[in-house]
Design brief:
229 residues, mainly alpha, 0% strand, transmembrane, transmembrane helix, membrane, Ccc1_fam
């Protein structure tokens, strides 16, 4: 058996938040910059909107992710309190329940009973949390970790189109931001897939197509207004 660190399930929490944040940072900031630029805004106004998008987006992602994951953690802790009370009040019934869980998975009744008894003696709440509630150390909700990952990843993603808008002349700013952001999205999808053990090509194509569509649509909306700022 390979050691536990060869598996990727323990990366799910932070990887999801990081990929979501970076992807949102690239798409939303590039879309805003392209939309403002398409409305014939000045270079200064475009950069100001990009910086505002980075700061506001990072803070919004952090707050939203923290609240969301904290709600999940509250539910987990409430279930653990209920299970702990049940173990104290009806230890025999809880033992039978645990044995039944193992029997439904194909374990022989006598073996299931022995396993349930030994796990209960070792860590009753941990056994029920894992096998009855589906709560284990590698998938516990971590609000602060998720919030920090989302904020940092959003800012990192948003920095790409913002940097491109700083370097590109106003005459070619929109195509430079769009092409550079799409390339960044493809690289992000490939890296995320590699980290999670998924096919890289399909993940890169998916995030690239969806991101390019979002940026193009936003630029189109900006072009409809065609207002100098």
């Amino acid at each position: 058996m390979p050691p536990p660190d060869h598996h990727r399930i323990n990366r799910a929490g932070w990887l999801r938040a990081a990929v979501l944040g970076a992807n949102d940072g690239i798409v939303s900031t590039a879309s805003l910059i392209a939309g403002v630029a398409a409305a014939q805004a000045s270079h200064e106004a475009i950069l100001t909107s990009g910086v505002a998008a980075l700061v506001a987006g990072a803070l919004s992602m952090a707050a939203g992710e923290y609240v969301s994951v904290q709600s999940q953690l509250d539910i987990e802790e409430a279930d653990l309190r209920i299970e702990s009370a049940a173990l104290k009040a009806n230890s025999g019934e809880e033992l039978d329940e645990l044995a039944l869980i193992y029997m439904k998975r194909g374990v022989a009744p006598d073996v299931a009973r022995t396993v349930a008894r030994q796990l209960t003696a070792h860590d009753a709440l941990g056994a029920h949390a894992r096998d009855e509630l589906g709560i284990s150390p590698h998938n516990r909700a971590r609000p602060v970790q998720a919030a920090l990952a989302s904020a940092c990843s959003f800012a990192s993603g948003a920095a790409l189109p913002l940097l491109l808008s700083v370097l590109a002349p106003l005459s070619v700013l929109i195509p430079v931001v769009m092409v550079g952001s799409v390339i960044g999205l493809g690289a992000l999808g490939a890296i995320a897939a590699r980290t999670g053990g998924a096919p890289m090509g399909r993940a890169a194509l998916r995030v690239t197509v969806l991101g390019a569509l979002a940026i193009a649509l936003t630029a189109g909306v900006g072009a409809l207004f065609d207002v100098s700022v």
